[in-house]
Sequence to fold (451 residues):
Amino acid sequence: MTNKKPAWLSQRSGPAAGDISTWSNWTGDQTCSPRRIERPRTVDELSSLVAAASAAGEGPIRVVGAGHSFGDIVGTPGVLISLDHLAGLLAYDEVSGHATVAAGTRLFQLNGLLDEVGRAMANLGDINVQSVAGAMSTATHGTGARLGNLATQVVSLDLVTADGSVRTIDDGDELMAARVSLGALGVICAVTLQTVPSFRLHAVDERRPLEETLLRLDEFTDVNEHFEFWAFPHTNQALCRTNNRTDDPARVRGKVASFVTETVLENKVLDLVSQAGRRFPSQIPRLNRLVTRAFSETDRVDVGHQIFSSVRDVKFTESEWAVPADAAPSMVRELFSVIDKRGFDVNFPLEVRFVAPDTESFLSPSWGRDTSYIAAHMYRGMEWEPYLRAVREVALAHDGRPHWGKRHFLTAAELAPKYPEWERFQGVRRTFDPNGAFTNDHVGRVLGGIA
Fold:
């Protein structure tokens, strides 16, 4: 770890915009009323406001990106910082492929910036509105059994600590703690990423029998660079997606086809069907079968990030669990059984993805093992807690670790045994934030206090 001041710190100027307001997350079910919301335009401004807020005891100090987490990870009665004005490509090295971006850069902005220099991220999730720092700090992931989560692509980062110091973290336990830190170490202001040459993907969406899919998971994840599937309760079909690199020329949907598929079918129709299920729960099994039959089978080729990303306008809440990859079939079957036996009204699918072991981030849910992520959702306005608590119990029985940005109900005492390097992370945390300036209720609950 070094304390050098990055050259780009004072490139931008302009007043910070402090205000008093109420903040809510993307889905609208997490809110807080901070003492004030700050929007610094330079890292100097960010450093000054963090130091002042910490010295005055105005914390907890928390940072918000796109607000795409489903738990209360962002909430604070203290100072909430938005990094939306700290965005953009700061440096690019053609030899190494390292790209340094300001932490508030959204993933869709990052993709465009990398396009301009012929580079790309090796893997991405299907939502591209998160900030780079937020996606990294919660171990957000895509799918690909030989590819890691977004944090594994982080080479170094710049962090503002509670006293306002700006530290470049590029090695050792500090980096392994900072990659996935839930904002508990300080405010990330820049991230250096390992990029790859730009590439195209051949994407195929198709229906398969669910049981066949479960029995052939090893095959599908082995022969495809990216494989995932969705399965609605009360159906016997899996909606499968494979993405593989190709040198074939682009073969993309036209504007009308894209609008019909992505806006109308995948969002408007799904929202209407979900509303119908919310109003008439007894019809959910029938509606789920209808949506599955209406699934659009496609075959297209496009630049990687255009294939990875999807429009997601339908609002829901979510719990997602990282289990050993070979436990995925058992967990899916058991979840469907629990839904039937306990009569849960579930009109959203399970989503099943795959990630390579992570040995670079102490708090990564995929630490040290081939991993399957299994996500359960509940449509907005529907009772979600009993179902997601039942999902938790099934996941724990399969040695699951929770996605840090989703609902999971676990405490630090329950989480610590699941992470072999928990104490090494806590050692770094005590060094960086000994007084708990960045510890809100959520962080205190899931990581514990500063011992």
